[in-house]
Amino acid sequence: MTSWTPQPTGLKQILDTIIESTNEENNQDTQQAITEKLNEFTRVPEYIAYLAYILAFMPQQEDRIRTIAGYLLKNNARLIVRAAPEVVAYVKASVLQAFFDPSMMVRNAAGQDIVSFLGILEPKNWPECLQQLVHTLDSSSLDQQEAAFNVLEKACEDYPRKLDVEINGQWPLEFMIPKFLVLSEHPSPKMRAHAIACLSYFVPIGCQALFTHIDQFIACLFKRASDDDPQVRRHVCQALVLLLASRPEKLMPEMANVAEYMLYSTKDKNENVALEACEFWLTFAEDPDLAPWLHPLLGKVAPVLLDCMVYGEDDLLWLEGDAEDAHVPDKDSDIKPRHYGGKAHGLEREAANGDGSSKPKVGAYGEEFEDESDSDFEDEDDEFADEMSTEWNLRKCAAAALDVLAVRFGADMLNHLLEPLKTKLWSEDWLQRESGILALGAMAEGCIDAIEPHLPTLIPYLINTLNDSKPLVRSISCWTLGRYASWCTQPISEEHKNQFFIPTLEGLLRMVLDSNKRVQEAGCSAFATLEEDAGPELAPYLEPVLRNLVIAFERYQHKNMLILYDAVGTLADAVGNALQNPSYVDILMPPLLKRWSKLKDDDEDLVPLLEQNPDMDEPDRSFLVVALDLLSGLTQGLGMALENSISRSQPNLLSLLTICLKHPQAPPHMPAVMAELIVQLDPEPKVEFISACNNAAWSVGEVALRYGRDEPEFQQWVHLLVSRLIPILLHPKAPRSLHENAAVSIGRIGLMHPQMVAPLLPEFAQAWCQALYEIRDNEEKDSAFRGLCTLVQTNPAGIAKASPYLRYLSHLLPC
């Protein structure tokens, strides 16, 4: 052990505070004071060493006290970066000691600490930890083996690139990969699952140590494909998905068998296995180079995906979808943080399917962590139940796969689904009807030409389902009508308007005022889509539209009020000057002003409410400068102590800073801002940093446009930015919004600096096209595609790999 020792007074203060925090009789004020006190301890340079001491060397304390110290240590792990060498050495030694403590709770907490510290310090700076974990895999104790493998799996998942390094002249993975392959045959199913999971996480990064043994790895997957344990099968499916995305040529010789296995697994009774298998078809469909292998499988794949889109019993329990709950106030946990100024592109399909999931924990790019029941780690997420309805699940994955298949194969795909889809749409079982309506919406974009002849029948059918007694049917019908809004709003003839546009308009307005909050949300969102597509065609109907929206202002709870604000803003954009009619202003402004009068200066509704008035003057420049100077001083003076305040700020402080970047006075401060944005562009962000990465990916494109063409000052950042944006774009597990924001910014930087970016075009051209070819037309898409065209003109050979998209691209811009 190192020379550091705790001071009795400091130890007592921290220990007493932790003990006091466990008092169940504490009221909210007392608990808040304890939290503030714990936060103050973070200013003590040796704080993490005290926590490590309590965790590892105070067996006389209750296990839960030591465990809380371990969790506090994990939450403050980044303090180790600026800690003194003796503190760093002590903490490292202590958590390894605690990892072998007799108490399971303490071991679990120490394991989480190891994952955090190993990621922050990096294995090359803590090789003894990695060595001890690998050595423990040969322990005579199965519990110790599984605990060590659990830590290794999370490390492999969170930061595989940091493990693929040379340490003291050796590459640890050259030993670890063969070790994992051997352990895939272990008698314990947990050990087998860990082994396959660890191996699979190195596939996306092109790990040479794994690819040296790629044939053994694939043989291992085939052997474990029929494993009795569902966790093992789930990781087999996950590995096959990752191989398909990164090394498809290795699967092609056995694709017939692989496809049959994945079809079988997509119907697995264990939803986690089925979900991973379903990801296979989504990945398959997204790669245009694999279309010749996928096309012959459509007849089998499409009906299976359709069946996967039916709500399960667990989904319905979580959703409680039948409630007439419009009058019930929202809980704080119902309302997710909103980031103003950032952009989330892509299809709306995920937002519409508010169904549940049985996944307890999600990794940085949406991949699952091990099920809590099979894990040595305890997930203390108190809001888990409230977040269930937004998790990625089998239903959503199947809908997404069907969407991409429709785009890829159009009418050919629809032909395989016509009969099963008809059966579902006219089924007596509302669950079957609902899934059929979802499928109809999912196919809207890709199959529109083939579906269009059927729309004169389908649109009235959808409008009629808005009267269904089941809120979930009404909700999904709203979403699907929104997907076909562009067809309904076409100014083809007066008959078309009377038969389709006006009934759709009236139906969605009724849903805006539905008695169920989920239907209100779907109706309001779909109506906003209708507004965008109808544009000036909506002007003659403004009075009834406004009167309905005004009623919604009186009825809506907090969460849906935010969506209503957006619908009003979209309406203003759609009809333009028509809304300036004094009679319309008299209808709309009173409820907005009434809402304004109820808000405090720090209310999170203030920003979306202000967005309803696009003509409002920006804040006086002097106020902006004073505010920014104050924030700068606070940041310099308080440092990391501001972190919690910044993360809780509403409106989001980072989003507001992004807006300030566009101000004419911003450039002198840009070097420091750009340095921070570049740091946030992490190809493998932790789950809590994905939003920051997303905002940074969007912001750098905005900055590039602001600087202008071939601006010398911005050129210093081009290679740094693109070198970080491309890995984000190419990461197979990155969220779609992150892919899209990275692609948009690459295009914008390319538009401004084509000579610097064009040589890299072959690396990202195909992924770039895949990321953006489905998003809606807007200014960002326009500038991004103009950037791509400029890059193609500069380096024509660089687009060769994305040639399947060239025909589509030719319809977008005159390149």
TrEMBL record:
Q: Does the keyword Repeat apply?
A: yes
Tell me yes or no: is rRNA processing among this UniProt entry's keywords: no
Q: Which UniProt keywords apply?
A: Cytoplasm, Nucleus, Protein transport, Repeat, Transport
Q: Where in the cell is it found?
A: Cytoplasm; Nucleus
**UniProt cross-references to InterPro entries, sorted A to Z:** ARM-like, ARM-type_fold, Importin_beta
Q: Name one GO cellular component term.
A: nuclear lumen
- What name does this protein carry? ARM repeat-containing protein
Species, as recorded: Hermanssonia centrifuga
